[in-house]
């Protein structure tokens, strides 16, 4: 793919823009009216309230289902709650997940430190659309599009053969070690979750793990998002509406700064993170594998004028060259396969070219061909 070699325009770091003291958001970041966070649709209208002190429209925060992994698969009620959450929300939070709280805190602090380094130290890792690895400020390569108010750092963690340590930040000094430890733990959690989701779908407990390529081959990438505070948060988005293209996402949200919004029908609800929990969501590949029994759900990130926000999204994906298709057990005469087989490598080209586009990609697969 020729078009994926370089960015179409010079890259501007949103953090530098924010720190330059501008009091207006440049046109490049101003979303059309229909996408702005202040666009009130039906019931959000009643729940939103306007914060006059920081000129920011704040939405009330909502609790999304919390799943306690303490007793794991022996616990019918837990499995049931997880199944309901997957069907009704596409999102849930997990507690007693096995990842050390200390390590979660360290990971957050280390990455905050990274983004607070001088620009030159970060530019060393400037990324290109070829692999997306490194320090980036846009998703998609189409010229002239409206950009999101965020920077990020993206790296491959699994399979180990894709780990490119030279692209992991060497500063702050603890960074590489923390990524390795954190990645290891979160991969273990992802593995457990895949098993539970398989059981809930009525598949063999290792069905999804196998479809993802087995323990050695499963793909896992880390995307650390940095959402700088924004002088006009009601005109832009930190991350535009999208569904995650991969299998499943395990998000460590900012403890102190809300921002993640999940679509519920015509509304957007702001997620209220439970302390020390991860937020898990179903990605497009699980929608395909489950033949749409579970669906990926659109989400986006709003920004605010008071605080920067940092989140760590760990994407758990099928091995990139395996064909992903609906599980045979979930395909019947009444419910034929909704999606053609496709590798994740092919699939993710769409978002890497076009940038975040709601659920346009996965929905296009089922439209008449
Ligand atoms: C993502 C994402 C949400 C957040 O990186 O795909 O949806 O809260 N992030 O940063
Ligand atoms: Ni996402």
From TrEMBL:
Pfam families associated with the record: 2OG-FeII_Oxy, DIOX_N
GO function term, MF aspect, one: jasmonic acid hydrolase
Domain of life: Eukaryota
BP GO terms, sorted: defense response; negative regulation of defense response to insect; regulation of defense response to fungus; regulation of jasmonic acid mediated signaling pathway
Domain Fe2OG dioxygenase: 217-318
InterPro entries named among the record's database cross-references: DIOX_N, IPNS-like_FE2OG_OXY, IPNS-like_sf, Oxoglu/Fe-dep_dioxygenase_dom, Plant_2OG-oxidoreductases
Catalytic activity: jasmonate + 2-oxoglutarate + O2 = (1R,2R)-12-hydroxyjasmonate + succinate + CO2
Keyword Membrane annotated: no
Matches recorded under SUPFAM superfamilies: Clavaminate synthase-like (SSF51197)
Entry annotated with the keyword Oxidoreductase: yes
Classification via PROSITE patterns: FE2OG_OXY
Alphabetic keyword roster: Dioxygenase, Iron, Jasmonic acid signaling pathway, Metal-binding, Oxidoreductase, Plant defense, Vitamin C
Protein name, per record: 2-oxoglutarate (2OG) and Fe(II)-dependent oxygenase superfamily protein
The species this protein was found in: Quillaja saponaria (Soap bark tree)
């Amino acid at each position: 793919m020729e078009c994926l070699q370089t960015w179409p325009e010079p890259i501007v770091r949103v953090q530098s823009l924010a720190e330059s003291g501008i009091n207006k958001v440049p046109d490049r970041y101003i979303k059309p009216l229909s996408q702005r966070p202040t666009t009130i649709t039906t019931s959000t209208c009643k729940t939103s309230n306007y914060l006059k002190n920081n000129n920011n429209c704040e939405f009330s925060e909502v609790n999304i289902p919390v799943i306690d992994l303490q007793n794991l698969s022996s616990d019918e009620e837990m499995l049931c709650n997880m199944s309901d959450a997957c069907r009704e929300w596409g999102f849930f939070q997990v507690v007693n997940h096995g990842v050390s709280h200390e390590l979660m805190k360290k990971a957050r602090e280390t990455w905050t430190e990274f983004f607070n380094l001088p620009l030159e130290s970060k530019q060393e890792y400037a990324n290109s659309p070829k692999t997306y690895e490194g320090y980036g400020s846009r998703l998609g390569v189409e010229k002239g599009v409206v950009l999101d108010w965020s920077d990020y750092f993206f790296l491959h963690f699994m399979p180990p053969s894709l780990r490119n340590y030279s692209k992991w930040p060497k500063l702050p000094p603890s960074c590489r070690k923390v990524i390795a430890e954190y990645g290891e733990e979160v991969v273990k959690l992802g593995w457990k979750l895949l098993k539970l989701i398989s059981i809930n779908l009525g598949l063999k407990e290792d069905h999804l793990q196998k479809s993802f390529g087995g323990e050695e081959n499963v793909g896992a990438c880390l995307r650390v998002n940095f959402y700088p505070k924004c002088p006009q948060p009601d005109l832009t988005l930190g991350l535009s509406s999208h569904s995650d293209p991969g299998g499943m996402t395990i998000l460590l949200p900012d403890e102190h700064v809300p921002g993640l919004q999940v679509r519920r029908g015509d509304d957007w609800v702001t997620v209220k993170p439970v302390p020390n929990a991860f937020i898990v969501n179903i990605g497009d590949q699980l929608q395909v594998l489950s033949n749409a029994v579970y669906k990926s759900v659109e989400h986006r990130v709003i920004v605010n004028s008071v605080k920067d926000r940092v989140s760590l999204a760990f994407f758990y994906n099928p091995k990139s060259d395996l064909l992903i298709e609906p599980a045979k057990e979930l395909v019947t005469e009444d419910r034929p396969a909704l999606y053609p087989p496709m590798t994740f490598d092919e699939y993710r080209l769409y978002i890497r070219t076009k940038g975040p586009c709601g659920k346009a990609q996965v929905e296009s697969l089922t439209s008449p061909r």
